[in-house]
Write a structure and sequence with these properties.
Blueprint (H helix, E strand, L loop, with lengths): L10 E5 L2 E3 L3 H5 L5 H14 L7 E7 L5 E7 L2 E3 L2 E7 L3 H8 L2 E8 L4 E11 L2 H10 L2 H9 L9 H14 L11 E15 L1 H4 L19 H7 L3 E4 L3
Antiparallel strand pairs: 1-2, 1-5, 3-4, 3-7, 5-6, 6-9, 7-8, 8-9, 9-10
Helix pairs in contact: 5-6
Bound molecules: flavin mononucleotide.
Length: 236
Amino acid sequence: MQGLNTAAPAVIRIGRNGAHGRGMTSLMTRRHDPIAKFIRWFDDVRRLKIPNYEAMALATTASDRQPSVRFVLLKGIDQRGFVFFTDSRSRKGRELRANPRAALAFYWQPNGRQVRVEGSVEQVAASEANEYWATRPRQSQLAASASYQSARLRSRASLLARVTRLAKKVRGREVPRPHGWLGFRLRPEAIEKFTSARETTGGAGCCSRRGTCGGEGLCEATIALTVMRIVTRTAT
Ligand SMILES: Cc1cc2nc3c(=O)[nH]c(=O)nc-3n(C[C@H](O)[C@H](O)[C@H](O)COP(=O)(O)O)c2cc1C
């Protein structure tokens, strides 16, 4: 088992042009570091120009133990973990308060790669949230400020009226970040990378190896044979 390398933290932001930031190049060259491996894969999908490649499924659990899942965007990554931003009054925000543990899953179809991450969740510093908030388009800031995420929409007209009122109120100045709009960091305790048989066998479909599933795609037996599975657990 490998531990997460905590030396010399690099700070990497995910923007419109992919991941960039201080220390990224040196981080990417650390061969056995699971975060570095993730960033290399992430850079591959950026270069493939996969739409929404930074989208990740985020699973949380309510206090009644009912799990829920939705997509959010990965907005930062460093040795500490995976950062996303949301309205903390939302369902996910409430669930993370009740149980600050979560799981993430990425899937990039063109190269059949999946990454799963599990760990604990903490709030990022207000300065980090402010920094990201400042990069958002004004219209998104207004919409996020005027709405309650996960709340039932009573009427579209009343929501639009709230956005318009707010736009007038803050005309000519910056839209302040709402107190409840926060960043969260999932600190990984386990990272699993999975790649399709097609990729590991250089283009062969699964059935060329086992012939048991009777068609294109992946069958269980082939996955068991050829999947590249890297599980890193740091929890004791
Ligand atoms: C591709 C994609 C990216 C999204 N990114 C975010 C995000 O970064 N933050 C966020 O709060 N919601 C994001 N959403 C909306 C969430 O999936 C979800 O609908 C919303 O946050 C409410 O979720 P909840 O009620 O479970 O809290 C995204 C949706 C999609 C489809």
